[in-house]
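Page 37, continued from 36.
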């Protein structure tokens, strides 16, 4: 929808096959640019974006660097939007936990602690971490949907 409205979009994608798919899908919009890179290594001109968005990927970035990396690319008063998808402690997730627990036990027992699910009204988010980074102010966490948006400090 944003591309159709002529917003300038830069998508950063490290996986070659996914980047190829993106290039094919956005061919009709000259305002969309695909950068084949990790977020950490992407060539970003300081202050070149009004908005940086990470959809279910921000948690993979180095927590000591992710806010600095996002903040550098933002113009003053720019915003960082982070979306995440987490399971919560609800009856609808019982089958999932029952199914993945043996897989974690066998292949990644060190991650079993990560399966402790938050309550539905307390899903994890990035708001506190974002505020603590000192790069952003006014974090507005819509925690029921696992999103966080914040403005860059001027």
């Amino acid at each position: 929808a944003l591309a159709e409205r002529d917003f300038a979009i830069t998508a950063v994608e490290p996986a070659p096959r996914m980047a190829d798919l993106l290039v094919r899908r956005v061919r009709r919009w000259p305002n969309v640019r695909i950068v084949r890179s990790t977020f950490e290594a992407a060539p970003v001109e300081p202050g070149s974006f009004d908005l940086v968005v990470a959809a279910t990927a921000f948690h993979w970035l180095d927590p000591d660097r992710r806010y600095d990396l996002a903040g550098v690319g933002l113009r003053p008063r720019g915003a960082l939007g982070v979306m995440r998808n987490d399971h919560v402690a609800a009856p609808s997730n019982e089958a999932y936990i029952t199914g993945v627990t043996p897989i974690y036990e066998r292949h990644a027992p060190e991650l079993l602690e990560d399966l402790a699910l938050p309550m539905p009204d307390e899903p994890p988010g990035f708001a506190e971490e974002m505020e603590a980074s000192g790069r952003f102010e006014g974090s507005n966490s819509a925690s029921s949907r696992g999103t966080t948006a914040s403005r860059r400090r001027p």
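Residues 141-148 have pLDDT under 50 and may be disordered. Flag for discussion at group meeting. The longest helix spans residues 94-107.
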